[in-house]
Structures are given as structure tokens and as C-alpha cells.
Design a protein that fits this description.
Layout lengths: L4 E2 L22 E6 L3 H5 L1 H10 L7 E5 L5 H9 L5 E7 L2 E7 L2 E4 L7 H8 L5 E4 L20 H8 L7 H15 L5 E4 L6 H16 L1 H10 L5 E4 L7 H8 L3 E2 L4 E3 L4 E4 L16 E2 L3 H25 L5 H5 L2 H15 L11 H12 L8 H5 L2 H18 L5 H14 L16 H11 L4 H4 L2 H4 L6 H17 L1 H10 L2 H4 L1
Parallel strand pairs: 1-10, 2-3, 2-7, 3-6, 4-11, 7-8, 12-13
Antiparallel strand pairs: 4-5, 9-12
Helix pairs in contact: 4-6, 5-7, 6-7, 7-8, 10-12, 10-13, 10-15, 10-16, 12-21, 15-16, 16-17, 16-20, 16-21, 20-21
């Protein structure tokens, strides 16, 4: 094989794959993005790159940022190749690649976040976007409000000029902009949260109020925080994925693989302007809620339907789960009988059609999306994705038998061993608490539901509680597959 080409501005014209045709040295920044993971580079950065390829948005380039020490490794990789990224699209019928160049710098990661604050205070930055995971917004798990008692936020309130969190950095930058007479930027959450813009506003304004009420009022009145829905599966990059770059003659330690599907729906509320994303496939809508409800419930909750049992049965990937007859049939029945009824259609897509789409996407064998990754942080993902569906089903008087089985399978996974006896390593920020509850629930199933920070008053919902206890008892007595097969064959709830 010929020598591999390392990415840089000077080697772009040596590449055999699609790559930036614009002068990257002439790009100027307009967006700061916090959390430069695979998803961001396969999704938001790609949409901006498409605009730049069309000769537009050259004053909207992305400055990458992070607030945690572990972000430094990605920063080092990207700066070494001029912040270029190879995207490898894994369509079931074809594999293709392109190099994306819409990011031009990655800020130093320092305690106190001074470089990030200074960058966001620059009026050239008109959008601050973020992908910091669903659990990163300091939401009280019971009230769903701002968690003002969290130690990180107490630190930022006491030290507003040297904050620990991304949100504290936003507040500090907005304070500098206000003092200099500059307009605020738009805060754009790209995380899988229902009403993510509203939640970002809640976090930023509430944090500002702890140290500077007048600043909080100014942010609330002048900054914008549009809700958005994002969708593209971009698995963790491992040795197999890195090797794919070699097939295209490229050496790229920051390569990203992704499926042949993207969707981005945003409220058109940008106080300082925005790129013309609508010309490259982004949907602007006043009803983002309907799109995000469809996606979060059918896709994100659907991931939890299969990942926990897949982990317990030693199935390594989501595609592997969908190739397992019992899991695939379990997924299909729960989705169609108990999840889709809680979802309204959106322009161009019915819930039933979206279930079919997700079923096909999850089954793509080229996407090596691990069950461990998808099962990570279940305490946030079940509370955010699954339990709201369960509540709606209960309120409508419909079956929750399959959803109760989903929760029982999660409890079984959190016991920390697979059915083959191997150990499931800690996979949640509160793994110790989950593991203790799961082990106690092996003998007393309601012990799992006694976790009030997760289930709240669902513990007292007899229909759900009784179904959950039956399923968990059966799982421990007979195994996961017999439980799923019984649900598939006959809805136990109807026989109760």
C-alpha cells in the first residue's frame, strides 16, 4: 500500500476523497462548540462544512472547546491535523469517506476556563453550541428543575470569574459581553433532551442569578436558546474504525464513522444571526417538540429497550441485538404497542413509519455501536427517555407490560453480571447505588422501584409495579430470553 496521508491544510489536495474546496486559512470564527465528540463532528460540523463547500458561511467557522481534562486528548489529535476530520459513512450497501474542515481551532483546556470565556466574550462568536450529554445539565432528577445544590454550581456561584462548568463559562462570557456593550450570543444545545433549549436557558439563567441577578435578567431578556432535535448514529471510534481510513489512503486518529442518515430540526430563534443551514437540509420549525418527541421516544428509548438486555446476554453491538430473534421481536412489539401510541406524526413521517426506519437503522451491521455505549448512564436515559412514555401509557389506561419488562431488564443488567457469569463493569455515574438496589431486588423486586430519584411516584402505580415485579422474578428464575418470548407471545398485562 502507498504511504498513508496525514491530514493537514497542505495535504488536502493529495486526498482521493471529497475534501474542503474552500480556503480554510481564510475562514473566521462564528461558533464556539463545547464538547467536540464524534457526534458533533459527524453532525453539526458536517452541515456547516456543506455550506462552506457551497461558498457560504466562511465567517461561521467553529472553535472547539472542552471543560474536562479528558477533552485534552481530542484537542491534541485535532490540532495535529489542523482540526480536520475524516468522516466515513457506513451505508449497508457502500462505504464512503469525506474530510470535513469547518472547525479551525480547539481552545486550551484550563482550570477556570479562561481561554473559553475569552473566546465566547468575543462578539465575533454569535452561537455557542454544546454536546455535553443528557446528564450534563444539572437537572434535579425529581423536580426536573435547576439543581442549585450541586457542588459544581455552588463553586461557580461563589467563583463566577473562574467557573468549573461549561454553564459557568457561558455566564462569565455573557457578563463580559454585557459590560463591553456587546449583544449576547445564542446558546444552542445539541443534546438529546426534551426541550433542550429551554433546559439550557434554565441552567444558564438560574446559575447567573446565584451570583448576579441583574445579569440573569439581561440574559433572560436578550439571549436566545432555541430548542433543537439532532439525529445521527456516530459510534465510538476503535481500532476497526481507525483502519477504515487506511482504505482511503488516510491516517486519521480522530476519524469518525457514522450512518447514512442525519436529521437536525431547530427553532429559528437566533439573536445574533445564523448560517443558512436550511439550504443544506436542516429543518427550521416552530414545533421542534413534535420532532424531538418522535425521535427521543422511538430512537432513544428504543436504544434502552435493547441495550440493557443485549449487555446481559453478552451481545456486543446494537446491530447484533437486532439480529437476535427474541430481542428484535421484543423491540418491535414494545415500539409498536407501547411507544408509538404516545407519539404524534410530524410532516412527512408517521410514528409507524419512523419505527420502521429506526428498525432498519439499528440493524445496519456496518455500524459497530456497542451495547455498552448505548447502555451507559441509564439513570439519566431511562428517566429522560423511557419513564415519560410509561407515565403517558398509564395516564391513557394502556398497557405498560413491555415497558415494565424494559425496566426489569435494566435492573437485571445493573446487578453487574451477565447470564454467562462475566462481570459488567460500572457503566453509570451512580452505578454503586444502582448495583446495590439491583442485588436487593433479586429477592425483593420492589427494592429497585424504591429508588425515588428515578421512579418517584411510579413506585405506587400498581399496574406498573405488579408487572415489573412479575418480570424481574421471571428473569432471575428463567432468564431474559424466556421473559421476552412470553411478552412477545402474549401480553401478560392483559391477563392480570
Amino acid at each position: 500500500m502507498d504511504e498513508l496521508i496525514s491530514l493537514s491544510n497542505t495535504t488536502l489536495n493529495q486526498l482521493s476523497v471529497e475534501h474542503p474546496q474552500y480556503d480554510r486559512t481564510a475562514l473566521t470564527p462564528g461558533i464556539a462548540h463545547i464538547g467536540v465528540g464524534n457526534f458533533h463532528r459527524a453532525h453539526q460540523a458536517w452541515y456547516l462544512h456543506r455550506l462552506m463547500q457551497a461558498g457560504e458561511a466562511h465567517d461561521w467557522a467553529i472553535i472547539g472547546a472542552g471543560v474536562r481534562p479528558y477533552d485534552a486528548a481530542m484537542r491534541e489529535k485535532l490540532l495535529a491535523q489542523d482540526c480536520l476530520t475524516t468522516l466515513v459513512e457506513l451505508d449497508p450497501e457502500n462505504v464512503s469517506a469525506e474530510v470535513v474542515g469547518s472547525m479551525i481551532d480547539y481552545l486550551p483546556i484550563e482550570e477556570g476556563n479562561a481561554p473559553l470565556i475569552a473566546q465566547m466574550a468575543d462578539p465575533a462568536i454569535r452561537i455557542v453550541a454544546m454536546t455535553v450529554t443528557e446528564s450534563g445539565y444539572y437537572i434535579d432528577p425529581v423536580t426536573k428543575g435547576f439543581d442549585a445544590a450541586h457542588p459544581d454550581l455552588l463553586h461557580d456561584a461563589a467563583h463566577p470569574d473562574t467557573p468549573r462548568t461549561a454553564f459557568g463559562a457561558l455566564v462569565a462570557a455573557l457578563k463580559l459581553r454585557r459590560a463591553a456593550g456587546h449583544a449576547p450570543f445564542t446558546g444552542l444545545s445539541c443534546d438529546n433532551l426534551q426541550g433542550n433549549g429551554d433546559i439550557l436557558r434554565q441552567t444558564v439563567v438560574s446559575l447567573a442569578r446565584l451570583s448576579d441577578p441583574e445579569l440573569a435578567d439581561w440574559i433572560d431578556a436578550n439571549a436566545t436558546f432555541p430548542n433543537s432535535m439532532v439525529d445521527c448514529i456516530a459510534p465510538v471510534t476503535g481500532p476497526k474504525e481507525l483502519a477504515l481510513a487506511h482504505d482511503f489512503g488516510i491516517k486519521d486518529p480522530a476519524l469518525v464513522t457514522h450512518e447514512a442518515f442525519r436529521q437536525w430540526v431547530i427553532e429559528d430563534k437566533f439573536c445574533a444571526g445564523r448560517p443558512a443551514w436550511d439550504t443544506v437540509g436542516v429543518t427550521f420549525s416552530d414545533d421542534v417538540h413534535a420532532f424531538e418527541t418522535m425521535k427521543i421516544r422511538i430512537l432513544n428509548a428504543g436504544h434502552q429497550v435493547i441495550a440493557n438486555v443485549g449487555e446481559t446476554l453478552s451481545i456486543e453491538t446494537i446491530a447484533g441485538c437486532m439480529a437476535h430473534p427474541a430481542i428484535r421481536n421484543f423491540f418491535g412489539k414494545v415500539e409498536r404497542n407501547e411507544i408509538a401510541p404516545t407519539v404524534a406524526p410530524v410532516p412527512g413521517k408517521t410514528p409507524a413509519a419512523y419505527v420502521d426506519l429506526i428498525e432498519a437503522r439499528f440493524s445496519n451491521p456496518r455500524i459497530v455501536d456497542t451495547t455498552r455505549r448505548v447502555a451507559f448512564d441509564g439513570s439519566a436515559r431511562h428517566t429522560g427517555f423511557v419513564l415519560p412514555i410509561l407515565r403517558d401509557q398509564l395516564a391513557a389506561g394502556r398497557s405498560v407490560s413491555g415497558l415494565a419488562l424494559v425496566e426489569a431488564l435494566w435492573a437485571r443488567m445493573c446487578a453487574g453480571t451477565r447470564e454467562d457469569g462475566s462481570v459488567i463493569e460500572a457503566n453509570d455515574p451512580i452505578w454503586a447505588e444502582l448495583n446495590a438496589a439491583a442485588l436487593e431486588a433479586k429477592e425483593q423486586p420492589t427494592a429497585w422501584l424504591d429508588q425515588s430519584n428515578i421512579y418517584g411516584d411510579l413506585r405506587d402505580a400498581e399496574l406498573f409495579r405488579d408487572a415489573f415485579c412479575r418480570w424481574l422474578t421471571m428473569i432471575w428464575d428463567q432468564g431474559c430470553i424466556p421473559a421476552m418470548n412470553e411478552y412477545i407471545a402474549f401480553d401478560r398485562q392483559k391477563s392480570a
